[in-house]
């Protein structure tokens, strides 16, 4: 049985949970992280020296970094429609996974901490405005991509890339800020909402 360490409210843990749902992989999840078992213990650091969730244990395999984990699970237990076998099709999926982890995440980090987490360290109005502006710019990039595909982020079929991107879209929609009109993104969110995995794990850890 796959063991997943991490609280269900974590966006990175939810990547793993949603992936498991898509491939029908059973798992056991344990609450670790903020508000639960601390990740700075020797026990947890032996699994992930970064003291971050998620971590998985799959038999004698231990892995951390959410995007690495979902790629591993798709490779080992999934099917080629989720994570294609051919180099170019897989690269198209990977580029959007990496884009979410680097460019998109970096853009929304300050605004999310300020507006959702209400962090006292993230209340600079200029920094907040800059973060919202960057976040909107990257969401407009996603809008153009979804307009071009008419379906999912990497093409006509749902793929592994739609898991991290879909979770980021949910975060965008749920953060209290003025949202520009992005009809393709709205249609995409509705399309994802038809999937059982998204309904279970896509909305901030809530059913």
UniProtKB/TrEMBL annotation:
CDD domains: GST_N_2 (cd03047). PANTHER family: DISULFIDE-BOND OXIDOREDUCTASE YFCG, GLUTATHIONE S-TRANSFERASE-RELATED. This is Glutathione S-transferase family protein. Residues 1-81 form the GST N-terminal domain. InterPro entries: Glutathione-S-Trfase_C-like, Glutathione-S-Trfase_C_sf, Glutathione_S-Trfase, Glutathione_S-Trfase_N, GST_C, Thioredoxin-like_sf. Residues 86-207 form the GST C-terminal domain.
